[in-house]
Amino acid sequence: MNKRTSNADFQPLDSGLVPRFAGLPTFMRLPIARPDQVDIALVGIPFDGGTTNRTGARHGPREIRNQSSLVRRVHHVTGQSPFDKMKVGDCGDAPINPLDLMATLESITAFYTEIHKARARPLTAGGDHLISLPILRAIAAKGPVGMIHFDAHSDTYDSFFGSRYNHGTPFRRAIEEGLLDPKRVIQIGIRGAISDASNYDFAREAGVRIVFIEEFAERGPKSVMEEARKLVGNAPTYVSFDIDALDPSIAPGTGTPEIGGITTREAQAMVRLLDGVDIIGADLVEVSPPLDPTGSTALAGATMMFELLCVMANSPRR
In a designed cystine with 302, which of 67, 126, 167, 204 is the match (CB 3.0 to 4.6 A)? Predict the structure, then answer.
């Protein structure tokens, strides 16, 4: 089987034939696939070895798969199905070692290098936010890309507890390694008290555009996304969505919650406004199921992954 295979082979299970609570728990009830069979590869990275506060994001991919059984085929606004436009499949989990952070970063990069070679674009469920770094090492190896980043935190700090590799540092490392063009990076929803007044100095001096939640609330999704689209332009762009961008009253199951956040409706509106952006990959991170036994945080994550999938299916990249 190869990418010439019909899209009919890469459709979600019909809930009228197989109940949503039955069958193998794959992303959006899609078939298990190899990267060389699909255009968009849904991948899990069950790793939270970069977490500095509450753990549990290692369980994110499995519960997001479970909750994604509620995802349906057709987007209710556009009336279109991403599964009819692109071949999409669940390509499993990247290999990780829960006891060796540096070895895990290497194995994730190797896994995504194969996805990139297969010309599939990855849509990833984490895992803590450190996973974005090894993904970018694979898909931005030939030159820096832009990034639209939804988060409560900038994640451009230098180190925690003497470690330069954790979920608060991935985008500083990515800029330093030439994976991200900081002048084409915008961070949306940033908020909360910080440990030092200089915490944002690196990002600002590098040229990263930071949109704090107060500015977002004043301007609204449409205005902010118009700026984001203009900033990244027509060049390759990565999208990273930390679930703590959402207000914890909506998504409590995350390691470092910050009150006063974005609503799910605002988040959906912003992702929909990415339509047409040259998206080379995306991730949804920091869902910690043990911290939310209701499953609502994982459901929010699964739904935002579907929104991302829809705009990726319309991306000019083929």
Answer: 67
